[in-house]
Amino acid sequence: MAQTRGMLVSMTETLPEDEEETNEWFHREHIDLRAQTDGFIRARRYISVEGSPKYIATYETVSDSVLSSEAYLQAVGNQSEWTLKVLPMFTMLQRLTLKLTVDRLQGGGGALTVVRFQAPEKEDDQASLRNWIADDFVPAALSKPGITGVCLGENMLEAANATGEVARAIGGDVPVTEVEEWLVFVEGVDTTVTASAGEALVSGAPDLLDSGATYVKSTFQYLYGYPG
What we know:
The protein is α+β, with helices and mostly antiparallel strands. Helix content is 36%, strand content 35%.
């Protein structure tokens, strides 16, 4: 049976005077190092063209278990001097540790739209929404010219808080994760195309906004990745 892949997501913002150094840190050190950690496949970083946060980075793994492995926790806790200098500069540092329960990613598109929302409370409702995304939304999205990949990531609270505890110990301002969130990623060759697919998800998902749940839809342009 194929392993369920994982994805670490970091969402960051910083003050204008710190932006040059934090960007250099991501592109000259952090992205490459994290992508070379055991079990990681690739890492990519994007800048917002619509919505927030300003920056998002994704780190894909061969299985979701990598994100709670001892090797990964050691890597998080064993940071460089540059990392220790940069972490306090972030005015936003949110991390999500995802299991890719629907995974149709391939290659790498230059544009990314992310729809982030609170998961339904009941397991039956979660299953219905997950199946709709897999069986209805994903095939429809991939049939559109310019869409190159789609996935659904479900936040793993225990793993997220384990890595967050380590990150806080070395100076990161990482909040405790208490809400089960889902993220749908739509990749493509153009931001207009991916944003349109994100709108189709929000308007077509059954009961997505029931019980007062809110969603955030943001679109990003690719900046840097490793492997390139």
